[in-house]
Amino acid sequence: MLRSTASRLASRIGTVASSRTLVTAKLPDLAYDYGALEPIVSGEIMQLHHAKHHNTYVTNFNLAMEKYAEAEARGDYSTMISLQGAIKFNGGGHVNHSMFWKNLAPPKDCEPPSGELLSMINRDFGSLEKLQDKFSAQTVAVQGSGWGWLGLNKATGKLAIATTANQDPCVTTGLTPLLGVDVWEHAYYLQYKNVRPDYVNAIWNIVNWKDVAANLAAAK
């Protein structure tokens, strides 16, 4: 009786899983040309970063999700568990970069933060300059590869700074991401060599604060 029940349950799970439509991730288009962020970030870096690195995360994420769906349909929990690392790494890479591109804008189009975002920055950090100094210091200090984040702590209603390793998304810190800065070497090495502080300090010149404000509004 137990075996029969288990067989029916496994069959039911397999039917449900196999009937799902697999939604695949797609490489987003940029709102600007590869060379539009110069001189802060070179066109060569942007092309390699977007068309090669980000595209690889998308490809590998879709492959991992396809394998996961197949394993789920079979009730193969061991394989489902083993795929979690690839899903987190490549999915995180896709999510992080999709926000990163929108967080940036050509220098001519960038304006300082204003309105509610600026009020919260002044309240939680003292000033925009103090936010930038703290964010830069923590982000530069990331060991190896990772990201620096400005996020909203929904529990407190305050802005906070966090860092993540590798491609871990900001949500793993408990914050809702508003601004992310990629400090993997592929984001800056061709231009800034191993001087990460120069890259992080320079990137403030191309932060799209309008997008950050839109992320804040959406988060609230």
Main traits of this protein?
minor pseudopilin epsh fold; Mn/Fe_SOD_N_sf; Helix Hairpins; disordered N terminus; about 220 residues; metal-binding; single chain; superoxide dismutase activity; mainly alpha; three-stranded antiparallel β-sheet; 3 strands
How does this structure look, described?
The protein is mainly alpha-helical. It has 2 domains: 43-105, Fe,Mn superoxide dismutase (SOD) domain (Helix Hairpins, Orthogonal Bundle); 108-219, 3-Layer(bab) Sandwich (minor pseudopilin epsh fold), CATH 3.55.40. The protein has helices at residues 2-18, 43-74, 77-82, 84-103, 115-125, 128-140, 189-192, 196-202, 209-219; strands at 146-153, 158-165, 176-182. Strands 2-1-3 form a 3-stranded antiparallel β-sheet. Strand 1 (146-153) and strand 2 form a beta hairpin. Helix 2 (43-74) runs antiparallel to helix 4 and helix 6 (128-140) packs antiparallel against helix 8. It starts with a helix and ends with a helix. Mean pLDDT is 92; it is low at 1-19.
